[in-house]
Amino acid sequence: MAPTLSTTQFSNPAEVTDFVVHKGNGVKGLSETGIKALPDQYIQPFEERLINKFVNETDEAIPVIDMSNPDENRVAEAVCDAAEKWGFFQVINHGVPLEVLDDVKAATHRFFNLPVEEKCKFTKENSLSTTVRFGTSFSPLAEQALEWKDYLSLFFVSEAEAEQFWPDICRNETLEYIDKSKKMVRKLLEYLGKNLNVKELDETKESLFMGSIRVNLNYYPICPNPDLTVGVGRHSDVSSLTILLQDQIGGLHVRSLASGNWVHVPPVPGSFVINIGDAMQILSNGRYKSVEHRVLANGNNNRISVPIFVNPKPESVIGPLPEVIANGEEPIYRDILYSDYVRYFFRKAHDGKKTVDYAKF
Fold first, then answer.
1. Is the Cα dihedral 307, 31, 262, 92 positive or negative?
2. Residue 220 pLDDT more than 60?
3. The pTM is what?
């Protein structure tokens, strides 16, 4: 007989939470017990399950931009246009070597394949640094329903700090990924900035747009009853820009600003998915859109993704840029300390676009 929740080691929901969250097995460990039924605490509210049913009902698609186009103005225009109309786009021929991408994907698999006791050295309780955290779901203590995802989150302080605290098994590949994508990130931010009358990315602007970096290694294991849960719930990012490397499995969906439909972001080999985060929406006074997205759980495949969150410095004060409101445009957002904004985001469950309203007047 196939094991079900009642016949395996779990007799009640508290035991599942203990196994996944407190003992550090994550949903990967749960998936590998061979459970055949989704535990209750992963069952999402009705409206989320409804979205799961209707996510593929549209033929809309986010733009794919070739960054190697010799006409750089065309590229810049396409980037800014996508940032305003979609908040999401894919880039190809972006100049980041493909082996760097393959290496960081392989390193992600290696980390998650470590024995539980090795991964547990990096939980909130055990990690020797607040910049390194192995965890599961999004905010297990604040959520009504848990999300079917494990992650390792790495906040970049310095090479030396990473040498000391990041897991050996994925450190160099992750650092290389950050380093090799910097040039592309700068380029994208220059395009977006110029369109907002920001003449150049000087030190002040650089610390606002790209003052801090966080990388997540995400693991979405095979899920029983994937239609009842989510890999990641509806949210927009708090970053200025997110650079996402995804594997070939798929499952990321973006909410179309034009129609409200959920649009699949198909994996394009060698591409990045780029999206505008809340900080950039605020800095641009709403011109660039930070858009809701979510990830489906998958019944057949394990999926990984590796986002780089390009953020303001935590101590930055973010608000509409002076260059944007110089022409008499009314500011929609107030000035807010970036670290306060982020704290507000992580204090609650994923809830669509509600965080950005916190920064409105």
1. positive
2. yes
3. 0.92
